[in-house]
Amino acid sequence: MNGLYLFAHIAGTPIAVSTDEVDAVVRLNELSPVPGVSDHVAGLSALRSRVLTVIDAAALVRRQKSCVRPQEDTESEFHVIVCEISGHGYGILVDRVDDIQTIDTLPLPICGRIDPAWQPYAKGVIENGGDPHFLVSLSGFLELGVCAQAA
Known about the structure:
Number of strands: 10
Structural class: mainly beta
CATH architecture: Beta Barrel
Number of helices: 2
CATH class: Mainly Beta
Mean pLDDT: 86
Number of domains: 1
Strand content: 35-45%
Helix content: 10-25%
Radius of gyration: 15 Å
CATH superfamily: CheA-289, Domain 4
């Protein structure tokens, strides 16, 4: 079995996402903050005449705001994986996006100990070029983010 995967980094950790979940990968220059929301909601952004809620995946995993955010006086960009979940547009903020590759093997089970912060998100391991990447689901970040906000 083969699959097409997007390879990226979240909180310094290599991840793989099935491209079935990905609408686009973009760089955003601006995020509008939303007062009173959890730290994992980085803000709102407009993309192709639709509003995206941008989720800071590193904030969910590490339980703190990401260091990926640009400084006010620079022209830094946010790297965002765009997806649609339950009819709503979301952007998942990542450190960087590396590549898209077809992988001809099934995901491997997670063997050994992993950082407890990644346990709710990592569903398996995909190897790309001999390097392991946690297989994650974009919808998993949203589901677990809602649980974190409710707690």
